[in-house]
Amino acid sequence: MTKLFTIAEMMGRDLARRRVALALLAFVPLLFYMARHDGNPEKAIRFAGLGLAWAVSTAGLFLSNTTKAVERRLRQLGYQPAHLYLGTLTALLTLGAALAAVYWVLIYVDQDNLQRPGVVAIEFGLTIVVAAPLGLLISAAAPHDLEGTLVLISITGLQFLVDPGQRLARALPFWSTQQVGVYGLDGGDPEHLREGLLHGALYCAGLILVTAVLASVRLRRRKHMRVRASTS
């Protein structure tokens, strides 16, 4: 546990050093929220949730690439891949929880007719739980920041464009939060809440599993290269 929290603290310090980038990411949900603030309050809250997803996923993408840069040195100091992944994930979830709390308070104060504020909090929390491992997975799959950012833009764009009732929507990571939003903002059936929570939990578990597989493959390749270098 000590090593895990050491990695989390190191990632937190790395985020704190990127003050401008962190501030820009923190303002993304506000921009999304204000874009629909006057015309449709329910949609404005959904947009804020997607902005929150974008901010946390992007932070995860850059943090994971930071971990890659010092991975070999940390492994030599006795840190396991699980320490690196879970420590980075802990830092991301902490950042996401802070952002989600700020925006939940903002919406609670700003919206007079918010019927189920607790469900909005659940929606934002679920967004963070899915967005953090999503950013780490994209970083594990994409070789550079640019490719990862383009993948993230594509996913977010599809999330905006695809109707939640379409079959394709269930394959997208934040369909779960849309379902929770239907229950919390539109007065939908409790089944929407159950479906959203189940989808989010399964998606989160799948993201973590795939990232673990990709990380093990990458580390195995690096070990193979080191063996060849030592024998040559």
Describe the protein in words.
The protein is an all-alpha fold and 232 residues long. It has eight helices and no strands. Helix 1 crosses helix 4, helix 3 packs across helix 5 (117-141) and helix 5 runs antiparallel to helix 7 (175-185). The longest helix is centred in the last third of the chain and has 42 residues, at 190-231. The chain is globular. The model is unreliable at 224-232 (pLDDT under 50).
Features:
single chain; 232 residues; mainly alpha; 8 helices; globular; disordered C terminus
- Tally of DSSP β-strands: 0
Low-confidence region ranges: 224-232
**How do the SSEs run, as a string of H and E?**
HHHHHHHH
As a percent range, the share of strand residues is under 5%
Rg over CA atoms:
19 Å
User: Which structural category fits the helices and strands?
Assistant: mainly alpha
State the major sheet. Answer: none
Please give the count of helices.
8
Brief summary of the model shown:
The chain is mainly α. It is 84% helix and 0% strand.
Topology readout:
Blueprint: H1 2-17, H2 19-35, H3 41-76, H4 81-110, H5 117-141, H6 145-161, H7 175-185, H8 190-231
